[in-house]
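user: can you give me the structure for this one chain? tokens are fine.
assistant: on it. calling the predictor now.
[tool input]
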Amino acid sequence: MIRVILIDDEPLARMVIREYLADFPQVEVLQECNDGFEGVKAIHQHQPDLIFLDIQMPKINGFEMLELIDQPPAVIFTTAFDEFAIRAFETHAVDYLLKPFNKERFGKALQKWIDQQKAGGKNESTNEVLEEAALTPSQKERVVIKNAGKIKIIPVQDIIWLEAADDYVKLHTREGAFLKNKTMGYFEKSLSPDQFVRTHRSNMVQVKEITRLEPYEKETWLAILRSGEKVPVSKTGYTKLKSVLGL
């Protein structure tokens, strides 16, 4: 039995998928979810084989929802026309259904996934899509994290500096520090280079938070922030900072 979850804020869209799934008796719908918050809980609870996921949803979008799951299940994305998303899906061979889709197109997408599973296919391409999604303007405006079991949305302008912490990145804000299961490289690509500078292999700083630079050890400096915190600046980071600050 193939266990699936439907995640879409449009009841009609979920109803259509349920109707189309009637042709696949080997598929069991475990739950329907109205938004990404419900989706995260349902995936953790049921551990489905496959989800049908809308991208444009209120609260958090489909990409942000997947980032909150340590091991995302297989995904067939459903979306209204989104030029970027479709390009990313096609680049990384992830199947998608462009709304409104008919029964034949739906059947092809699901059968393709079933055939891939029989052949021992993996879901690595989903993570590749998420990496590319981080580069879109809408995804650069905020960071979605899990904190103490709750989902929190952090506007990018509220991030003071970032610090590598093993497999995570620690986001320092005025509310406190929060962990995101990403790499410094991910944030260096996704955050605006005019706003954030990687001052050190383990740190990034929001430029407007810097009050001054102080010499430290040989060819290194410390960025003194408005908060009073001190962030290491390497020789390469110093060069980047001078360029952004126009020094």
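assistant: here you go. Residues 169 and 180 are 5 Å apart (CA to CA). The chain has two domains: 2-133, 141-245.
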